[in-house]
2-dehydro-3-deoxygluconokinase
Amino acid sequence: MPTAPRPEQASAPAGLPSIEVAAVGETMVVLCPAPGEPLEHAERVAVSVGGAESNVAGYLARLGHLTTWVSRVGDDPFGRAVVRHVAAAGVRVDQVCVDPAAPTGLYVKDPGPEGTAVHYYRAGSAAARMDPATLADPALAGARVLHLSGITAALSASCRALVEHAVTDRPLADALVSFDVNHRARLWPAEQAAPVLRDLANRCDLVFVGQDEAETLWGATDPAAVRELLPAPQTVVVKDGAVGATALVRDAEPVFVPAPRVTVVEPVGAGDAFAAGYLAGLLRGLDPVRRLRLGHLVAAQALTSSGDNAPVPPWAWFEKLIDAPADAWSPLDLTDPGETT
């Protein structure tokens, strides 16, 4: 895909402090009929907004960190809705380009008895026209973390070039590069995605990957096997749903933290929330155990909410639980109202 002409992009307003986290990726408008109502019979749909990387930025902002979302949207009502939604979460949006020549991406949910199917309308979207120049603005130079995902690499050739540039050339020289593998089978099949995602992940500093997707992509059946496939990053975090998560830090013993019990309302967005919690712990200088605990606790907010970006409790609530003794953490049950206040 040829590199798209770059629209005008605003630099950070004068006087603003340097950002902590720059999250790069596409965010789309989501259309969804009433729960359980098939799309073909729906007379009304709810309009919302969803995107993995902006979800991470939103949770980090709610946790008190200065974040920016880097992307492109169309010059259309959907694009304006996306930008307004992301900004409402407390995320800076001055790194978002408005592209007059391409539309904002869209996806539609289709509930059914076997689960919810998703239909994407994102081919040729404004975000698919991102390229390596997306990271050229000097306002990004002070970021402590650059967060990316494998979704962006699947959108177009220019987007893959952007991710390769970010993880190899390191245009944000002082930033830790965080990468969520986030394989989306509807964007590219596992056999096509597997070598690309492994190569990109292995050039990053911090990698998040689900145990199930690691097995689908690479046949890795446990965290040790994942680490063997990804030896270069400083840290690989393997998430295993309701079981827990393992942090494999170079030259250290693996650390496993079980997930607390929750009543799941909607699983969408929980992985993004976990990544945000872990990154917040990293930015605050917490040890790996507390980073994983914080990841689980933020993920719990997403799991118990119907939206992609749930509200979060005050920091004091998180602090009490991440500092709990091991024998208090293991049986933690967030379905108990007493543990959620």
